[in-house]
Amino acid sequence: MLTVANTTKWLQLFTDQVNTNQDALNQYDTPIGDGDHGSNLARGTTAMMDSLNKADLKSVSDVWKTAAMAIISKVGGAAGPLYGTAFLEMAKASKDRPADDIAVQPLIDASLKGLLKRGGAVPGDKTMVDVWTDVDADLEKGPLTSDQVKTAVESTKPMEAKKGRASYLGKDSVGHLDPGSVSSGFFFESLIQEGEIQ
Amino acid sequence: MSYGILVVSHVKEIADGVLKLIAQVAADVPITTAGGTDDDGIGTSVAKITSAVEHNEGDEILAFYDLGSAKMNLDMVMELSDKKIHLYNVALVEGAYTAAALLQAGQDLPTIEKQLQPLKIK
Ligand SMILES: Nc1ncnc2c1ncn2[C@@H]1O[C@H](COP(=O)(O)OP(=O)(O)OP(=O)(O)O)[C@@H](O)[C@H]1O
Ligand SMILES: [Mg+2]
């Protein structure tokens, strides 16, 4: 179950992973994009932690809403509206739940719906939607594992991109991991690493 | 009902350039732009788009954009804004130019949208 403390911790672990791997994320975005995914996201997650540390967080929903607003206003690339929308959907989905009964799966499910609507991508288009779709299904069956996250991220490699910058490359996008899927992998690895939520 | 044009691009100079091009044929049409990120890097900014919508003197906005995140950020602003925003998935330069020239000529929205139809590329 999510609490203010463990949700904030999850986001802190995600921020740490994004910061540590900022260059690697830029590298993933170089052959099939514009090389800025790590920088974009790190700008957002850093601002997000600043906001979270300053805010008076009364509920899990407050945490996601505060996180979303920072991401939306600071990222400057596709990752902004996408992660921003995902987090806003988590804020909405957790809002009306009893404070001691907020499970992670329904939140991810709501986020995925938001992502599909925001970007217009479908599974198989080689976007972060692929990872969120797989994780959503995995979570329905039980606690998420690292292997499941890896498999989801790796699944984007053979795909041909149909959305986002990589789609302009057509078949040349095949054989590369999707950068947004790699960062989404960090997000879900952080959930597992937090250890208490699921 | 008055209409204004909004140009959203990943690059400040592209937005400024489109403005320069279309303003020449549309002296009386309100045009505002949102180009680049908050620090004028390559990307799009919700803050810049919001401000360009608010500062546009048109009652309703005809919005034109270039790539990916521009549309997603425009969509987010549309959900939050009180102003009605019409978003066109057309070629940026040709679309904005068409709308500007026809608004200046006093054409109505259905006529403009009909002219924009063949310019749809995304
Ligand atoms: N339409 C979309 N739907 C879902 N995910 C998308 C879409 N477009 C891009 N993405 C995801 O965003 C990632 C790229 O994020 P990044 O921050 O690098 O944005 P960008 O593509 O550089 O932004 P911009 O659109 O401003 O050029 C991709 O790897 C992909 O996972
Ligand atoms: Mg990029």
Automatic annotation (TrEMBL), chain A:
State the Gene Ontology terms under molecular function: glycerone kinase activity; phosphoenolpyruvate-glycerone phosphotransferase activity
A biological process term (GO) from this entry: glycerol catabolic process
Tell me where on the tree of life, at the top rank, the source sits.
Answer: Bacteria
Occurrences of domain DhaL (ranges): 5-193
Q: Which UniProt keywords apply?
A: Glycerol metabolism, Kinase, Transferase
- Please give the PROSITE patterns that the UniProt record associates with this protein: DHAL
Q: Pfam families annotated for this entry?
A: Dak2
What job does the chain carry out? ADP-binding subunit of the dihydroxyacetone kinase, which is responsible for the phosphoenolpyruvate (PEP)-dependent phosphorylation of dihydroxyacetone. DhaL-ADP is converted to DhaL-ATP via a phosphoryl group transfer from DhaM and transmits it to dihydroxyacetone binds to DhaK.
Q: Which NCBIfam families does this chain map to?
A: dha_L_ycgS (TIGR02365)
- Protein name (Swiss-Prot/TrEMBL): phosphoenolpyruvate--glycerone phosphotransferase
The organism encoding this protein is: Lactobacillus selangorensis
Automatic annotation (TrEMBL), chain B:
The record, for SUPFAM superfamilies, names:
PTS system fructose IIA component-like
Could you give a single Gene Ontology term from the biological process aspect? phosphoenolpyruvate-dependent sugar phosphotransferase system
PTS EIIA type-4 domain: which residues?
Answer: 2-122
- What would be one Gene Ontology cellular-component term for the protein? membrane
Stated EC number for the protein is 2.7.1.121
**Subunit note:** Homodimer. The dihydroxyacetone kinase complex is composed of a homodimer of DhaM, a homodimer of DhaK and the subunit DhaL.
Q: Provide the protein name.
A: phosphoenolpyruvate--glycerone phosphotransferase
